[in-house]
Automatic annotation (TrEMBL):
Cited PANTHER family: MOLYBDENUM COFACTOR BIOSYNTHESIS, MOLYBDOPTERIN MOLYBDOTRANSFERASE
Domain MoaB/Mog span(s) in chain numbering: 11-157
Organism encoding this protein: Methylobacterium hispanicum
Keywords from the named record: ATP-binding, Molybdenum cofactor biosynthesis, Nucleotide-binding, Nucleotidyltransferase, Transferase
Taxonomic superkingdom: Bacteria
GO biological-process terms attached to the record: Mo-molybdopterin cofactor biosynthetic process
EC number per UniProt: 2.7.7.75
One matching Pfam family: MoCF_biosynth
InterPro entries linked to this entry: MoaB/Mog-like_dom_sf (IPR036425), MoaB/Mog_dom (IPR001453), MoCF_biosynth_CS (IPR008284), MPT_Adenylyltrnsfr/MoaC-Rel (IPR051920)
Protein name: Molybdopterin adenylyltransferase
SMART domains: MoCF_biosynth
Gene that this polypeptide is encoded by: mog
Amino acid sequence: MTPSARPARIGILTVSDRASSGGYADASGPAMHAVLAEILASPWEAVARTVPDGVESVRDALIRLVDDAHCDLVLTTGGTGPAPRDLTPEGTEAACDRMMPGFGELMRRRGLDQVPTAILSRQTAGLRGKALIVNCPGRPSSIRVSLLAVFPAIPYCLDLIGAARIETDPAVVQAFRPT
Ligand SMILES: Nc1ncnc2c1ncn2[C@@H]1O[C@H](COP(=O)(O)OP(=O)(O)OP(=O)(O)O)[C@@H](O)[C@H]1O
Ligand SMILES: Nc1nc2c(c(=O)[nH]1)N[C@H]1C(S)=C(S)[C@@H](COP(=O)(O)O)O[C@H]1N2
């Protein structure tokens, strides 16, 4: 099957000690699913997982989502801040072959329009094989801002790495593919 003929597989990884232990219901994973449903105009399927904070927990979950579940794109939420157990960027880097620092830069910049504490997120992005991994902050309200900031560049990034072809709803996100 050619990459464009199959639905994109998108991993949604919630990283939170409390959401993973039942301390509160995960609102960020469902928020991410809802924003993706709004943005995407081509077929896709979600693979949702929740793990506690930690370098190994995040690294191992990302490796499973890419290598075993064959995700084209994995979005994480939570664990990007300065608190001692906020280790999602380190787990992401451990799972990636190459980093894509522009994603974090742009999400922080757009986040500043929402809250002055956007700079406290160390959110980053990187590539593992034919998959793109992007971190978002944990607060449910930060998800839409973060994804709308970077999504215009995601379809072309997936093209370049040989992942599934995705299309966006232009009324929500104008994907940019240089001609
Ligand atoms: N997955 C989630 N579902 C619902 N609310 C969340 C989630 N992640 C974060 N939040 C909310 O955003 C706030 C700040 O997020 P942050 O990642 O700092 O949480 P946290 O206190 O570190 O969570 P934890 O200790 O469980 O990992 C939390 O206190 C919570 O109110
Ligand atoms: N757009 C946006 N970015 C944001 C926030 C937010 O509310 N909106 N919260 C900030 C805060 S308060 C923190 S501590 C960091 C890290 O959050 P995390 O540890 O939940 O990932 O994200 C920041 N980025």
